[in-house]
Amino acid sequence: MLRGIYTGANGMNIQQVRMDVIANNLANVDKTAFKKDTTLFKTFPELLIHRFREDGIGTVPMGSFDTTPLVGKLGLGGEVNEVYTRFEQGAVKKTDNPFDLMIQDKPGSDRPAFFSVMTNRGERLSRSGAFIVDTNGFLVNPQGFPLMGEKGPIQVVKGNFLVKENGEVIIDGEIGNSPRESLTSAEHNRFKNPVLLDKLKIRTVENPRHLDKDGDSFYVETPESGEPKPFVNEIESPQILQGYLEASNVQVVTEMVEMIEVNRAYEANQKSIQTQDQLLGKLINEVMR
């Protein structure tokens, strides 16, 4: 029953963390390019229990033997080891909005790509490609932070730009990139003088599992993840899709099944503690008689 006490309390703490992570995943199921979190936990090493006051070694003609009978094992509980983000590609959603961009990772790649966005806390990584154009003609996210190119923030005419699959931003040189100019839908994609304006600042890290979430779909690097760096191998470089968005990779049915599992595990650990408490109460009553 000692094992029930220790494991029960730790088990409840573990399941509470799992429930918080699952609830956060479900709350962001419709958020563009949201990446689900997964909880990992580990158990402490178990101890072998021997009967009290029977330590020693016995001898027989054939050799020696341990006189300490083995009773069983004592579990020392567990703990949450890690909550990490899974960067599997989300579903593709076609929007036909020229300001929506999506990163399509190469199949089999274990290093996801990210947009670079300049925030008031510094440059951050993001998978969300839902951008708009502000009054100055800059491509910004819904919070107003500019999308970064290799030369700096990207400023385009409303409708006067195309993003190629390699991330290059093309504008019509005859119109330029003044925010006061705009194109009609009929003129869009009919560039008379295509000019390379900039290239999207697409970055990756060596160990994306160790990236920290920074709110508003942003990620910040850590010493374990490594610093953001460009793709040097064209084979691994992602494709940029204009007019598409990436959905979250949260599977609602899977999360609901895990939530039921967590509830049952929590109740089982709770009952083990209640049972031990009742047995302990009976023991105290017998001793006090």
Summarize the structure.
The chain is of the alpha+beta class and 289 residues long.
Mind sketching the topology for me?
Elements: H1 2-27, E1 37-43, E2 47-50, E3 57-60, E4 63-66, E5 70-74, E6 78-85, E7 92-94, E8 101-104, E9 114-119, E10 122-126, E11 132-133, E12 139-140, E13 148-149, E14 152-153, E15 162-163, E16 168-172, E17 194-199, E18 202-203, E19 212-213, E20 218-220, E21 239-242, E22 244-246, H2 252-288
Antiparallel strand pairs: 1-6, 2-5, 3-4, 7-22, 8-21, 9-10, 9-18, 10-20, 11-12, 13-14, 15-16, 16-17, 19-20
Structure description:
The protein has helices at 2-27, 252-288, and strands at 37-43, 47-50, 57-60, 63-66, 70-74, 78-85, 92-94, 101-104, 114-119, 122-126, 132-133, 139-140, 148-149, 152-153, 162-163, 168-172, 194-199, 202-203, 212-213, 218-220, 239-242, 244-246. The chain has 289 residues and is α+β, with helices and mostly antiparallel strands. The chain folds into two domains: 2-85 and 251-288, no CATH class; 92-246, no CATH class. The chain has a five-stranded antiparallel β-sheet, with no helix packed on it. A hairpin with a 4-residue loop joins strand 15 and strand 16. The two termini are 23 Å apart.
Structural class: alpha+beta
Can you write the helix and strand succession as a string? HEEEEEEEEEEEEEEEEEEEEEEH
What is the count of β-strands?
22
Could you describe the largest sheet, including whether it forms a barrel? 5 strands, antiparallel
Helix content: 10-25%
- Rounded to the nearest angstrom, the distance between the terminal CA atoms is 23 Å
Determine the strand fraction and express it as a percent band. 25-35%
The overall pLDDT, averaged over residues, is 83
